[in-house]
Amino acid sequence: MKYLKIISDILPIPSYSVILICFFFPFMTISCGGNEIASMSGFEIAKGTDFKKKMNESEFVKNYKEKLGSMDASPMDEQTSDADESQKSKPVRLLFIPFFLAILGLIISFIKFKRRAVVHIILSILGFLCLLFFGIVFQNSDELNSINSLGSRLSSTGLGEDMLTIKLKNAYYFSCVLFSIVFSFYAFELYYRKNFGTTNDDDEANISQPNGSAKSQSERVEEAIKILENL
């Protein structure tokens, strides 16, 4: 129980801190033929980012256009030109929820109250579900379909098929794992305390109980002595 309490006090602080840091690392990348041409952090995705603009600014795309030379009106240029007008990504507000949940969880980690484990369970499972939902929805988003469409156009130039790919990166998965670790630990802690251990309030009660028992025994001895004296 002692070690369980130590872990319970320490675990959420680094967990929520790392989750917040992960939001400023790439949550997804766009690559072409195995070469990374654009990456976006979780915070950038949440507030909205122009995917095609990031692609055009990459060294890989610039070199690609130089190699094409006279093929300036290639499918890639047409697609990116259209993207500048109407393909700017919409803010994914959903990602702000786990971000602020991590901030709230970090603050609560420094506050001691009775139902803290329950609060951590609620925060962590909500954060995990939001990230999971984002990952599922993002795989079917308009931005991803636009990238796949651009890849199909490039394949018509004879440069190969499925050149452009978009993937969720380690920072996203690491955030999901940390939320699930926090949830799993505090769920286990509640289960353990309920079936095999005691709460802090019970521990305090058990500590004070022997003194109370000793006091009641001394009172009984005094009563017994008085009864004998009266006889």
How would you describe what is shown here?
With 231 residues, the chain is mostly helical. It folds into 2 domains: 196 residues, no CATH class; 32 residues. The protein has 11 helices and 3 strands. The chain has a 3-stranded antiparallel beta sheet. Helix 2 packs antiparallel against helix 10. The chain is rod-shaped. The protein starts with a helix and ends with a helix.
Write the layout of secondary structure elements.
Elements lengths: L1 H9 L1 H11 L3 E7 L2 E7 H6 L3 H7 L1 H10 L6 H12 L9 H13 L7 H23 L3 H14 L8 E5 L1 H26 L4 H31 L1
Antiparallel strand pairs: 1-2, 1-3
What is the count of structural domains? 2
- In terms of structural class, how would the helical and strand content be classed? mainly alpha
Main sheet: which strands, in order across? 2-1-3
- Rg calculated over all Cα atoms: 30 Å
Global morphology: rod-shaped
- Helix-residue proportion: over 70%
First and last CA, distance? 52 Å
Strand content: 5-15%
User: How many DSSP E strands?
Assistant: 3
Low-confidence stretches: 70-86, 199-214
**Overall average pLDDT:** 76
| Topology order in helix (H) and strand (E) letters | HHEEHHHHHHHEHH
- Alpha plus pi helix count: 11
The main β sheet shows up as: 3 strands, antiparallel
